[in-house]
Amino acid sequence: MTTRREKIEAMLADDPTDTFLRYSLAMELDNADEHDASLAKLDELTKDDPPYVAAFFMAGQQLTKLGRINDARAYLRDGIEAARAQGDAHAAGEMSEYLAALGDLGE
Hints:
It comes from Posidoniimonas polymericola. This is Tetratricopeptide repeat protein. InterPro entries: TPR-like_helical_dom_sf (IPR011990). There is one protein chain. By secondary structure, the chain is mainly α. It has one domain: Alpha Horseshoe (Serine Threonine Protein Phosphatase 5, Tetratricopeptide repeat), CATH 1.25.40.10. The protein is built from six helices and no strands. Helix 3 runs antiparallel to helix 4. The termini are far apart.
């Protein structure tokens, strides 16, 4: 039986630039506790033109789970800026709230 991850990887072989498939693979890697690989995929998405805004938020959340609070804050700040630049006030607001909720947590 083919796993979800295998299906995504097969589709990516046909279209390696598909943003949603790349994002989906990053989420599958996170679910498999392959955090370094997941974060690398998310980071690639943040460097696209235009950047994929959801990748900033997911990277921030994943980094928070890993206790890398300062790294999470950096992704969230960059994500807020990217969302505003793309006119996505909703995403900017969600990331701003998450960033504020991190408060004084340190690494």
